[in-house]
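Me: Here is a favour to ask of a fellow structure person. Could you put it straight underneath, so I can go through it closely?

Assistant:
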Amino acid sequence: MTQTTEAQNPESHKPGVLAGYRVLDCSIAMAGPFAAQRLGDLGADVIKVEPTTGEWQRHAAAGGAVGNEINVSFLSLNRNKRSVALDLKAAEGKAALRELVAGADVFLQNYRPGVAARLGVDYESLRAINPSIVYVSISGYGEDGPYRDRPGQDLLLQAMSGAMYSAGRDGDEPSPAGQYLADAITASTAFEGVLAALLHRERTGEGQLVTVNMLDALTTLQMQELSVFTVGRKAQQRSAEPHAHVYIRAPYGVFETSDGYVALAFADLHELGRLIDEPSFEGWSSEVEGWTRRDEIHAKTAAKLRQDTAAHWIDLLGAAGMWIGPVNDYAGLVDDPQIVHNGTFIEYEHPSEGLVKTPGFPYQFSATPPQVYRGAPLVGEHTREILVEAGFDDDAVDTLLASGAARATETAPVAASAR
């Protein structure tokens, strides 16, 4: 079933496994905010440090899903965070951030190379304030090198990574993944880096700089494929028929049925031929003809599977132990019985967006489970609260707000009705 949680009263929740750690999230777009959200899901106090105009993602609505006060892009990547809005180009705003750094455990940023140093929030500057800080810097291609200043955008990184030539039909244009793959993998990599650096600090007391770049993250994800190329010296050779991966024998891919599609992988050719009534597969070896006659196997399998329904083939071939399953769109995924059973999606009430249903958590802990402590914040929703915690009195906060070096949204809008 879908998990339903109340996100309006964070104090009522059981502390998560990262409770007690404070993270300053100075990142924008997807990779950095997604990594920080994962930390917040596990109970860390994640403070989103954003410009007084709001983080870039607030103004860039993916899919045109604009929301009420917060668009869906920002909403999906910034739950379990508090927002402090500071102008880091103003001396007063920069000084306020330094006060926050003094009490933080993690500082995460994905500024363009050189920007952190110009703002005075590079690792060396912040380490001078807090020697035990875990400082995470995310970039597109690396902190230096020939591509240092190129835009680190998901599609461009997918294209550079080589992955687009590992699937599809020979002669067709390369095809990107259906996910923001480079961003998502980079987020997971940064999340792992934070956890490892915090573990090191627990053991030694030593903070450190952690650098993550999208190109390396997406390249190392292809550990097996690239090793087949570099060690096994097998080139990426796409087939004339569509094939899901160049380094997998046939049949391997998506096949049309009379009423939809199925995915079929690693079927034994002799047994597959018997079940789909394709006599030419008799005597063929999956580990020989599965490679040498890849196009023929795909074409003949495709012709047979078009003759009946997806459910028929899933039942028939699945009962024989073959790896076959449905091809879902998002509607099919959300309603999938296993997804529902797992509680993969969560629902909670948001002050401005009403009832929110989004993917939940990729991990579970028996003693300290991840939770939604709060929904994505409005710009500067917690500015006063956070600065007071850092030692500013109300008059000092008022002065910052009056100067424009900080911004506060003092009260959240009335909750929208559930949708």
Remarks:
- The longest helix spans residues 181-204.
- The domain at 3-221+344-407 is CATH 3.40.50.10540 (Rossmann fold).
- Residues 412-419 have pLDDT under 50 and may be disordered.
- The chain has two domains: 3-221+344-407, 261-326.
